[in-house]
Amino acid sequence: MLLPVGRVPLAAMEDLNVRILLGTLLSILLAVSVALAADPKTNPQQERMKTCNAEAGEKKLAGDERKAFMSTCLKGQGAAPMTQQEKMKVCNKEAGAKALKGDDRKKFMSECLSSDKKS
């Protein structure tokens, strides 16, 4: 069957529309999954958990010994205190999260940096 120039059969148009729709949906799904996988937001507790798990693995701890180590490690007991630079980073992040400005930020930073926080 010969069709006039410029005319496309209806079945071919529907097939093309379905392909475009599927391609769009797959692209959106891929973009969302990449965005979620690349989310670097981890809180200090998550970082501590990661560090403590790595240390427990290096020491090849298991069972009750591992539980005791993890409990102590997560509480920050026995951990080295943060350096001034690490404190500054943490305090800046907290001040930014609280959207502090001007004198409120200065006061917060002073109190935060002088506290005895541990990593």
Brief descriptors of the model:
single chain; mainly alpha
Topology:
Elements: H1 10-37, H2 44-58, H3 63-75, H4 84-97, H5 102-114
- The portion of residues assigned to helices is 55-70%
Total beta strands: 0
Number of domains: 3
Shape: elongated
Distance between the termini: 77 Å
Number of separate helices: 5
Task: Give structural notes.
This protein is mainly α. It has three domains: 9-39; 40-79, no CATH class; 81-119, no CATH class. It contains five helices and no strands. Helix 2 (44-58) runs antiparallel to helix 3 (63-75) and helix 4 (84-97) packs antiparallel against helix 5 (102-114).
Compact summary:
The protein contains five helices and no strands. The chain has 119 residues and is mostly helical. The protein folds into three domains: 31 residues; 40 residues, no CATH class; 39 residues, no CATH class.
